[in-house]
Amino acid sequence: MPGQTDAPGTAEAGMIWNRLRGHAAQIDMFRRAVQRNRTAHAYSFIGPSGIGKRQVAAMIAQCLFCTKFDDTELDACGTCAACRQVAAGTHPDLLTIGCPTGKRELPLELVAGPPERRGREGLCHDLSLKPMSADRRIAIIDDAQTLNEESANALLKTLEEPPPGSILFLISSGADALLPTIRSRCQPVHFSPLAEDDVAELILELGWESDRDQARAAAQLSEGSLETARELLDPGLRKLREELHQRLGAIAKDPVGTADALVELVESQASDTPGQRQTAGWMLAFAVRQFRDLLERMGRGEAGNDAQVEQLLLRCDGDPKVAADRLVASIDRVVQADFHLQQMMPVPLCLAGLCDDLSRIQRGLLPLAG
Questions:
Q1: Range with the largest mean pLDDT of 17-21, 329-333, 364-368
Q2: Considering the domain boundaries, does residue 3 fall inside one?
Q3: Whole-prediction pTM
Q4: What average pLDDT does range 188-207 have in this prediction?
Q5: N or C: which end of the chain has fewer CB within 10 A?
């Protein structure tokens, strides 16, 4: 699970937060709110996907349901019936919904029930019922940014008149992604990406990868998201990264051939247009990482032990400042290509233009900014 090594409920007696990586400030904030009896009725947990926001919400629920710890301690034993139910996803007072796989919007039925049972089923109805085993009910709405206007309106009454003691956690990728009527009625809690070292260690601990170097490589490109890191461990993406590394070395001499090879590589990874655009996006992210690595290695003075750095300096008449400027310009051009890709530029055209410009930058034929 993002941000932790075990699911909620598997810790030894107390201190379950020791098993969570990152987000200490957010947990301390919530603990103080509980101790002062000033918890809000609704929170929006905001931050990139795959960093553990939903896990934090579930662990808070576990702490509030645990029968062996007082709420003010915001801790859980992991062994009582309530903790085991949270771990198994069967606690009757913990309600969770999210956007179904393959859907783009969170259906109204999950919030307010199907048409024939509108208002008598769904999350809002269930949250209004008397708790079955705890002293409150807690709801987690994952993918809250996918609430459409109809679903948001159904949730609005619950946010305005919450059941006594209830807490709602809305998990979202960004504050602006939430509809204004929802955003204004929730206390925002912002989450930062996980540290690179934490992502690498979690990859190893979860058994997704046994090679520490591969785990580190995925963590470097993950932008602090364990979800993204797991995608990066896919053999197809790993092959893409390795082949791109080789192709970029030939781009100065043969930009047309490199572009053709990259397009062929993209098409071999995905047959449909959306898949090819996603693959091209990964390719651009890998290129940025490769140029940044070169820049860092050159800054450490590794020319004598690094063939890539040595070749780069040779193309720049041995001038490290010129080499650094060209690397920065190359990164800027790749970022620009990613923007073009997001604006729906055809993948072959995007890669052809990028390779031509990168070749000219590396050969000193394209004026550099500044």
A1: 329-333
A2: no
A3: 0.75
A4: 93
A5: C
Contact 250, 359 (CB under 8 A): no
- Give the whole-angstrom CA distance, residue 290 versus residue 241: 9
Residues 294, 356, single domain; the answer is yes
Residues 82, 185: one domain?
A: yes
pLDDT number for residue 306: 57
> Does some domain include residue 200?
yes
CA distances 73 to 36, 69, 206, Å, are 12, 7, 28
* 96, two tokens: 């969770």
Half-sphere exposure of 348 (CA within 13 A, CB side): 7
360/251 Cα distance (integer angstroms): 9
* CATH number reported for the structural domain that contains residue 22 in this entry: 3.40.50.300
- One DSSP character per residue, 16-76 reads GGGGB-S-HHHHHHHHHHHHTT---SEEEEES-TTSSHHHHHHHHHHHHH-SSS-GGG---
Interval 91-143: pLDDT, tens: 999 999 999 988 889 999 999 999 999 989 999 999 999 999 999 999 999 99
- Reduced to 3 states, what is the DSSP secondary structure of residue 347? helix
Q: How far apart are CA 221 and CA 316, in angstroms?
A: 28
**How many domains is the chain partitioned into structurally?**
3
Same domain, 245 and 215: no
* Crossing angle of helices 273-299 and 235-248, rounded to 10°: 60
Strands 167-172 and 187-190: unpaired
